[in-house]
Amino acid sequence: MPNKTLAVIAVFLLTLIVVDLFGGRRTITGINQKKDNNTVKKETQKKMKIEIWSDVMCPFCYIGKRNFEAALAQFPDRENIAVEWKSFQLDPTIPEVPQHQGNIYQFVAARKGISYERSVGMHEQVARMAKDAGLEYHFDKTLVTNSLKAHRLIQFAKPKGLGEYAEERLFYAYFTEGKDLSDDAVLTELGNDIGLTNADVKEALTNPAFQHQIEADGAEANSLGAKGVPFFVIDRKYAIAGAQSGAEMLKVLQTAYTEWKKGNPALLQVTEGATCTPGNECTH
Question: Residue 100 class from Cβ within 10 Å (0-12 exposed, 13-18 middle, 19+ buried)?
Fold first, then answer.
């Protein structure tokens, strides 16, 4: 066979190999997309779960959220952590528009049987704690109300992957902006802010299934020994009660994760080196 013919055949075969290594890989992925997706889903499920019970009208819950976020930011394996927010309604008996709704100092003074001045002092102390966590509380314009509707919105948002966004937006609306969380129009606006439609918010506020879930979350917290919120449960083995510092949360997180990882050996310990990836991207 002439050398020229052999050269053409060699080039052709080399082309097939390159296509198989790079372009062919994409084709195979496309054919087996369902299988690959299932594999990815299985891998992403290998995360240590942290459940957080809170009430959006609890000042320490927002502080606890920030401290937890600070701890997580320092945790090197945070991509292996899955967080689920859960409802804990502190006082279901509060009317939507209670007496002294627009004066939280007077509201708390009346509820606790303390002086107005003491109530103001207590709130000022909490505001300083919030500031230390990077938050800005405006108790002078806080509108006291029942938190049920806010919890309904969170429960609706959770399966859509918007639970954390709902928590954050509602916390900020209540403690910083002074929004009325008993007002359907306000809740619709806040729902829109996190990506929900008007119809979604209406469903959240009217479907009894979401109230049932709120009650179930509360019962679950009680069964785990929660005396109040925030209440963090890590891998159902460790619990953090209250707005602990970020440093303390990080310690518990590290201890729990070390134990959890022993039971999940499929997670690889990767030592990085020079590599080439599909698409002929090589790094060193």
Answer: middle
Instruction: Report d(CA 177, CA 183) in Å as an integer.
Output: 14
pLDDT tens, position by position, 196-224: 999 999 999 999 999 999 999 999 999 99
- DSSP class of residue 229? S
CA terminus-to-terminus distance, the chain = 43
pTM strictly above 0.70: yes
Dihedral of CA atoms 227, 230, 233, 234 in degrees, nearest 10, equals -150
Cβ atoms 146, 182 nearer than 8 A:
yes
- Tally Cβ neighbours within 10 Å of residue 233: 23
DSSP 97: S
d(CA 231, CA 45): 23
